[in-house]
Design goal:
Strand content: 35-45%
Radius of gyration: 15 Å
Number of helices: 4
Structural class: alpha+beta
Helix content: 25-40%
């Protein structure tokens, strides 16, 4: 009889979005990126599982500028966006990667 346990399934971003905001804040930190005194977007930092963002296609220095056509330049947009994404399975984002605005389709189940 084996006492080894199976590895826990990888958590998806979608699972985290459907959970509590408090749990989400334990997983990620949003860092505003400011240019010329204005918020341009947010850098997402993984606090527990960096591979989660990598599986979604994000690179460590990406700055998320918009999600599903919605600009992230104001804090109220973030709260509304989080509600909109609770039932989403994919999202279309524009990220600033190496100085170039790059479209990115993110699978939230990944």
């Amino acid at each position: 009889r084996s006492t080894a346990s199976a590895p826990a399934p990888a958590t998806s971003i979608r699972t985290l979005l459907q959970g509590s905001p408090a749990e989400l804040s334990k997983q990620f930190r949003l860092e505003p990126v400011v240019e010329a005194g204005q918020v341009r977007g947010y850098r997402i930092r993984a606090l527990r599982d960096p591979a989660l963002l990598q599986r979604a296609g994000l690179e460590p220095d990406d700055v998320v500028l918009s999600v599903n056509g919605r600009s992230l330049t104001e804090a109220p947009d973030i709260a509304g966006l989080m509600n909109d994404l609770r039932d989403a399975t994919v999202l279309d984002a524009v990220v600033l990667r190496n100085g170039i605005e790059t479209p990115l389709r993110i699978d939230l189940n990944g």
